[in-house]
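Suppose a colleague, Dr. K., hands you the sequence of a protein chain of 91 amino acids and asks what its three-dimensional shape might be. Before reaching for any lab equipment, you can write down a predicted structure in token form. Begin with the sequence itself:
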Amino acid sequence: MHNLIVSEDKMNEDEIRKEKIRNLLTPDVIVCKSCREKYKAETSCAVCGVNMLDPEYKGMVYECPVCGKLYCEGCWNKAGHKEQATKGIFH
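The predicted structure, expressed as tokens, is then:
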């Protein structure tokens, strides 16, 4: 039973951390270079690898509702999702 509680706590911590990082993926938030590198794995496009925390990235960020992977606007549109979704999760 104790292992189950610890496991649930770890899952909650991971979800909170993931949500905090995702909240950074808005055009009005700028982070320092060391943080962009630190969170690169969590904020990069699953296809092309562009770091969407980079201030040079101006597109929208899309998230797959099934697996939770993030995609840049270009890769999302190339995959044929453009017709299915008119807005990203962050605008």
